Amino acid sequence: MIKMNSMMMNKLKTFNIHLEHEKPKDIEMSDLLNEEKCRVFLQKLMLQIKAPNLSVAASMFSKRYAYLIVASTLYSMVQYNCTLKLPVKACALSKERELCIQLECCPWEETTNLEREQWRVNVLRSLFSEHITPVLNTLQKTSRLSPSILWENVAIRINSIYRKILSRDVELVKIERLNSDFQFLKNAEGDLFNLKENPIKEYLKIGEELEQNPCRKTCCMYYLLEEDLEGIGYCRICPIKSKLQRIGN
Predict the structure, then answer these.
(1) DSSP 8-state assignment for residue 21
(2) Which of the four, 37, 110, 205, 247, has the lowest number of CB atoms within 10 Å?
(3) pTM for the whole thing?
(4) CB-CB contact of 49 with 42 (8 Å)
(5) Which of 27-41, 95-109, 235-249 has the highest mean pLDDT?
(6) Residue 168: what pLDDT?
(7) Per the domain annotation, does 164 fall within a domain?
(8) Domain presence at residue 249
(9) What total number of domains does the chain contain?
(10) Residue 143 is assigned to a structural domain of this protein
C-alpha cells in the first residue's frame, strides 16, 4: 500500500494538493470557519483577483476549493477505490490557493473491511458534512452569496471530473464505480450534507444529459471580475451568456 499511496499522492499533485512542508501556508482552513477571519480572507482575495465585492470573491473561491477537495476525492474513489481523508483541521492554503495538508492527519480511506456502499457513505458524509458544508456556510454568511450558487459551484466540479474520467477511461469496473457514485450523490438525502435537503441534486449531470444541456442554472459571476484572467468573458457554461446568444439569434 505504501507504493500505491506514493502513486496516488503524485497524482493528487495534479489537483494542486501538496504536503505541508512543500508549500508555504498562507491560511489554515479552520480559520475560514470563523466569520471575521473569513471576511479578512475574502477581502484580501477580492483585491488579488479584482472582484467587485465579497460575493464574487466567495464564488470564485468556492469553485477553486471544490476542485481541490471534492474533485480530488471523487477522482480517487473511482480510480483507486481509495481516497485521502481531508479534515478541515489538516488543511491549509498557500498564497497560490493550492492545498497544503498534514499527511499524518489525513489517513487513506480504503474499502478493505467494509462493503463499498457503506465505505462510500462514510467517506462522503465526512467530506460534505464535516468539511464542505461548514466552509460554504461561513462563506455564505460572510459574503451574503446565495447558497444555490455556492453549491452549484461544487456540482460543476463534480460534473467536470466525472466527464473527464468518462472521456479517458475505458475500464468497465471504473465506469461502473463512477455511475454508481454519481447516482448515489444524485439521490442522497440531505443528512449526507448535514442539511435538510440534498443541495447539489438538481445540478448534477453526466453523459448525454450534460452534453445536451451543459449550462448552469445559476451564474457564478465570473463575468463581473474586473480582469478576465482566462480571456473567456463568461464561463463556458454561463446561463447569462447562453441567454444572450439565444436573444442574438
Answers:
(1) T
(2) 247
(3) 0.92
(4) no
(5) 27-41
(6) 86
(7) yes
(8) no
(9) 1
(10) yes
